[in-house]
Amino acid sequence: MNLKTVNIKKVENLDLKFEEVETKDKKYVEYMVTLVNNSNKEIFLTRVSTSCGCTDATFSKLPVLKEESTNVKFSFNPAGRQGFNQKSVTIFYSDTDDEATIKVSFTVNVK
Question: Which DSSP string do the residues of 7-37 spell out, in sequence order?
């Protein structure tokens, strides 16, 4: 699984990019982003959108308390695909005052 951690000090738009991954066996390529709440307020994940139907995402809608963390997991299905596949997942999150997104980009080279 490909992993990244984001320390959230305030709600703001962020971009995150994973290193390119190569796959030959047509198995799902899995990713996980851990969000750590280092702000003074609860944060909420309101939704997660993917760039196409070949990518699935799961996340918790429970509030993330101060100094707590939550995970957003997503996977890319390479079945029926060849070459470089550039995809993205957008995490929508907020606190009681502000809303923002974290755009996560990744590329899978299907051999």
Answer: EESS---EEEEPPPEEESS-PPEEEEEEEEE
pLDDT tens digits, 5-43: 999 999 999 999 999 999 998 899 999 999 999 999 999
Q: Is the pTM of this model over 0.85?
A: yes
Label the pairing between strands 69-76 and 29-37.
Answer: antiparallel
- 104: domain CATH number? 2.60.40.10
Domain that holds residue 84: 2-110
Residues in the chain: 111
Q: Record the tokens describing residue 98, joined without a space.
A: 């502000």
72 alpha carbon, distance to own chain's centre: 5
Written as six digits, the tokens of 99 are 């809303």
The torsion angle over the Cα atoms of residues 24, 25, 26 and 31, rounded to 10 degrees, is -80
Q: 91 forms bridges with which residues in the sheet?
A: 48, 102
